[in-house]
Design a protein that fits this description.
Shape: globular
Number of domains: 1
Radius of gyration: 14 Å
Order of helices and strands: EEEHHEHEHEEEEH
Number of strands: 9
Distance between the termini: 24 Å
Strand order of the largest sheet: 2-1-5-4-3-8-9
Structural class: alpha+beta
CATH class: Alpha Beta
């Protein structure tokens, strides 16, 4: 799938956890709000830990532009819960264990499972920005993402 900016973001329902509370998350529940989907390869890995901890540290910036941040990776909810507790990650981590959502967004990858990628979705559910990494541990910083969010 080659999702383009300006197209509706594919909907999904995934199990997840936030602050020890488990539930299913659907993209449609966030209609009327801006959303950042942060796909990452794995819990407890150096690059992903740097990325998610940076979002944790800059979380007020996302709140300042009224945006919801959702982390998505192929690990299960048990793994997400342990990692979130260890690193004090206060935003939802969603489990895309079969990588179906990753395929919908065009970020599924052999070996690593999911390419590090970020999608910004506006309040109407339309994709407004995407950054898809082929390899590596670089990621979009909160400053850049919240600048984009402030403009939509």
């Amino acid at each position: 799938m080659n999702l383009q900016v300006g197209e509706p973001a594919p909907g999904f329902t995934l199990p997840g956890v936030q602050n020890g509370v488990r539930r299913d998350y659907t993209l449609s529940e966030f209609l009327g709000s801006k959303v950042v989907l942060a796909f990452y390869p794995g819990d407890n890995t150096p690059g992903c830990t740097r990325q998610m901890c940076s979002y944790r540290d800059d979380f007020a910036m996302f709140e300042g532009v009224s945006a919801t941040l959702l982390g998505i990776s192929p690990q299960d909810v048990d793994s997400h819960e342990r990692w979130a507790e260890k690193r004090n990650l206060q935003f939802p981590l969603l489990a895309d264990t079969d990588r179906a959502v990753a395929r919908e967004y065009g970020v599924a990858a052999p070996v690593i499972g999911i390419r590090r990628s970020v999608f910004v979705i506006d309040a109407q559910g339309v994709l407004r920005y995407k950054d898809m990494k082929l390899i590596g541990a670089t990621f979009e910083r909160a400053e850049k993402l919240t600048g984009i969010l402030a403009g939509i």
